[in-house]
Amino acid sequence: MSKRLCMLWLCVLLIGGTSAQSLELPFSASLALKVPGNEAVRYPLQWQRQPGSNVCLAVLDAALPVRIERRVESPDETSCRVQVSIHALQPIYFNYGELLQTPLPHRESQFLLPGFWYHQNLRSPQQAPSFHSSDSWTVREDRLSTPLTAICHEESHLTYSVLRLDPHPCDALTTHREGEVILSGPTSVGYTGFRNVAGQAALAYGFPYSEAPRSYIRKLTLAPPIEAFYYLAAGQTLQLHWEVRQLATADFSECVQQMWEYSFDTFQPQPVETPNSVERMKEVMSRFFTDSYVDTCPLHYYSGVELQTATCAPTDVAEVGFVGRTLLNAFNAIEYGEQQQHPQMVADAQSIFLSYLQHGFTPSGFFHAKVLFRHPDKEQIHSIRRQSEGIYAALLYLQYERQQNRRHPQWESRLRTMLENVLRLQNPDGSFPRKFRDDFSVVDASGGSTPSATLPLVMAYRYFKDKRYLLAAKQSVSYLEQEIIAKADYFSSTLDANCEDKEAALAAATATYYLALVSKGAERAHYASLTRRAAYFGLSWYYTWDVPFAPGQMLGDLGLQSRGWGNVSVENNHIDVFVFEFADVLRWLSHTFAEPRFSRFAEVISTSMRQLLPYEGHACGIAKPGFYPEVVQHTAWDYGRNGKGYYNNIFAPGWTVASLWQLLTPGRAEQFLTR
User: Which of 506, 541, 576 lies at the terminal end of a domain, its last residue?
Assistant: First the structure.
């Protein structure tokens, strides 16, 4: 179907015409009414156009205690705004839904529910939402970084989208998590998604929320569907608003870009007002450096993995990268401790580096990246991500120490050995295996974690002035360009899931940013364009709006505003403060491409992520000051405990403190690479 014909089809479909034929086009709506204690009754709706207007009335049996009016306005030739008014003649419990059938073939289309669904979610297993389980899905809006669904057909270069326009001030508790449920009070959470209608892709949306064919309640756990019913008293009217758009997109990447820009422009997220300045954040978070320090084992470390939120008591897990980030935290503690004249903090952090120099390497010269002291004989499976994050932190440390006229030749020798190991692991296509053993045998050949190696390779090129590291970094980005960025396939950067995830997009954007910083001319421009392309996928995971909470849900009672926080992955539907250097990337892109949206949203991220700082009198559900929370459960999903409005009972503040510290210490990469 041609683009022009699709445009005419959409306008006739949504706006309608003067003939009855227009109303027979593939647009439908339905109303479900529930009497408590009885199964809901569903009514397909027919519409009667009001003469001389763009208003349609639902044709209902006179016995039904409701009046429904639908108004459509077209502000331009590419969009239509739908307003539905539901007026209760008697008390009712209802669920209203619409289905807009596009001309796009369903199986050949790609789908975007920002922060939740990309392409057809085929990287995800059958136990998570994906085409493996069903080709039709509707979900609660608060699962999404923007309450939007887009359907992209790359062959015809067309995308259709629907966006909820209503404000989102409230939510309500329910007594059940499946089946037909009556809400305990007002909510603003609706649903959105897509369906396969006779082989064509359709946008599905409605209010209040409904999830089908399954709901998703925790990691790799699909559950029965749920449909919520909203109460309207006699004489009350509820208005609902959506915007439907059709636009030209060259491919799925451009779809993601345009949808993020559209979402940003529509919601205009503003920085969050918070009393926690950068100085205050670091002052309180530095408590983590003192209160989590463990020196009772040969390896000294900050205990930041597998902690109980109720106690924050140290555990016997030392982890260099991923969720532990011991070495990066140690570097931050040294730099901050010397700035603030905390000699004990500095001494503890220096002892961590010394202990890793003495006891932290395997026979092949890799880091003991994750040590479980209760299982000292357990075989270690290395990951390119943990090893790379360890090298990254050690290079920051060595560069800082060099600037203080303190040299560490043994550390430099260790890093040289590790870097040679990294070069040995690199595949001819530039990728790195995700997981491997100490004898270099590959456990997981997936290249999804490749960009994590790019950063330390670029840094090592600068520090050691060895062009082999730069060549390896360029080869790694060549793989990223061909297999990840060009295919818009950002996956498996995190180590506890094998799916589409935020961290993969951030890693790709940061890796290309690092290469751009050490390049010039056309090469620099090329890397910058790759950074921008990947950054839009990273941005798509971050919330442009504030999801509502019900009274009694702790995060809502604390006043948490979700804009600027990022969802984690298709498998793990919680938000967190994973950002590290991404705000720097956004500011650099803003300057490079004269795009103010990037820097404006970086400020939203920077302010919003300060909200849950735990300190005396503002514990935020965490036992110790400075131990920043991790698994922030903002929707009807839990990581194992507690559900929406709370955290899981186990968390890893090692990485949250490290991430926020990077966020609040801008310019590190540019200072290291462009000195």
Answer: 541
